[in-house]
Amino acid sequence: xxxxxxxxxxxxxxxxxxxxxxxxxxxxxxxxxxxxxxxxxxxxxxxxxxxxxxxxxxxxxxxxxxxxxxxxxxxxxxxxxxxxxxxxxxxxxxxxxxxxxxxxxxxxxxxxxxxxxxxxxxxxxxxxxxxxxxxxxxxxxxxxxxxxxxxxxxxxxxxxxxxxxxxxxxxxxxxxxxxxxxxxxxxxxxxxxxxxxxxxxxxxxxxxxxxxxxxxxxxxxxxxxxxxxxxxxxxxxxxxxxxxxxxxxxxxxxxxxxxxxxxxxxxxxxxxxxxxxxxxxxxxxxxxxxxxxxxxxxxxxxxxxxxxxxxx
Length: 312
Ligand code: SAM
What we know:
By secondary structure, the protein is an alpha/beta fold. The protein has one domain (13-304): Alpha-Beta Barrel (TIM Barrel), CATH 3.20.20.70. It has helices spanning 47-57, 78-86, 105-114, 128-135, 140-152, 173-183, 201-206, 211-220, 252-256, 283-287, 292-304; strands at residues 13-17, 64-68, 93-98, 118-122, 159-163, 186-190, 221-226, 233-237, 242-246, 260-263, 268-270, 280-281. β3, α3 (105-114) and β4 (118-122) form a beta-alpha-beta unit. The longest helix has 13 residues, at 140-152. The mean pLDDT is 95. S-adenosylmethionine binds at residues 22, 28-30, 32, 68-69, 71, 97-99, 122, 161, 163, 190, 192-193.
């Protein structure tokens, strides 16, 4: 049965962080809104535990799973996790967001075989020096190679995630459109987020208002679609390029259309990306042999705590 939260939002998507470990160190990273890192490696959920959580989650209406991290490809059992999830009846799609660094041919083959449907690759710039400045690693060529391999492995289209950063990549929209024309990737420009707008000097320095970029896109787009999910705008250019703009900050329509529950890598249900004060531990009861009914009640508890962060 589909459960609707107190604000009329069904819960259809689950976004699961399977590790906090990462092989890049992006200067803007929000760590999926989970900053408690001390015990997270020991408490990483096993493949079976992740499967059990999603399996119970189906009872509240979950149909789609996104795997994230940390860097999900750092887990050697990522293929097992995806296989277990994609085989669950009622789960229509398992997708993943990755920095793309480990997307070699064998990995892509195994991901495909495991049942992964879609991949988003984080790609904030096409300039090697800027890439280094953002991630602290000189590996842009490897990521571009990974995107090519994924495209040729039938993960088509690939979406790229680009967090807009003032003075770093906000003038690169044209370069990304060229990339999309050449490769067929779907571009996704994401507004920089913060959980502490007042005191976040990084945010103040680098946040870009996406409005001027959207105005340009509006001018060159053949048509503009508004996706149901978080009311994201999707611009279709006449050269076939597709560009989505994700604007979470102060966007009540974004929150009003959020159908997503999250799971932290240490097994807490997370009702909202923006908040860390209302997590609900599901791994503890699961490890203490809770029944499916008891775990379902834990889901209901987390859903009851859901509240749009930005409201009208
Ligand atoms: N390591 C993987 C990767 O690089 O894609 C998965 C984890 S990363 C936290 C997932 C996504 O979060 C990235 O694509 C990035 O777009 C987004 N992200 C991280 N920090 C952000 C921030 N401060 N504002 C907006 N998006 C952010």
